[in-house]
Amino acid sequence: MSHYPALADRTAVITGAASGMGEATARLLAANGARVALLARRADRLDALAAAITGVGGRALAVPVDVTDQRSVDRAAAAVHRAWGQVDLVVNAAGVMLPNPVAVAHPRAEPDGDWARMIDTNLTGALRVIHAFRADLVAAAAGGRTADLVNVSSIGAHVPFPGYAVYGATKAALSHLSAVLRTEFGPLDVRVTNVEPGLTDTELADGVANPELADQLAGMFEAIESLTAEDIADLIAWTTSRRPAVNLRQAIVLPTRQA
Fold it and tell me: Could you give the residue numbers annotated as active site?
């Protein structure tokens, strides 16, 4: 396992920690000495992960949260602050991918529809979490500590995939949000990093209900050796362990065989 001593004793909040990139990032940060607050909807998964981390000497706090619910995010932030005080590292890894052509007849824009779920999780949910911990990051940096905000976007922010219009739009918005936030946070010594993974083997693909798109995605996994969640976690750990004056603002990471 890579070792990043600069992560020791940092306090990290990781959304989407119940699986995939969020879980892998939590495990790696904890293995390198960080306190990790695990945020996601599935409480059972969080409890199991927290137990696994603490079982090998790490420090983890399970905090069930729904990032689409402002009150839930507020409660989660309060729980983190009660347990560990000020946060200096935030990783927005929560996301859903529910692709379909926009021509699909049923009302995808209804409050419980796929469009709304993707927008409210991938974009507004990230904003809620950023707002909840913004003051922490600014205060940590002002106190001379390293402070990081990492947003996990997607190569879909740049590359158009048929059927993925709304998903890609949410990720393009998140990527642009990251760039603009650097103009606000950078002068305050808070680093902002936007990570755009390509084909990665996580549970995100389970949300693809459209048979044609599901078959297409399965074919990509058969044809290309994909990235793993651990690959993305390692990139996040490396990035956030640089000296404070160094900000890797944008990281596009693809499988070698993905065009």
Answer: 167
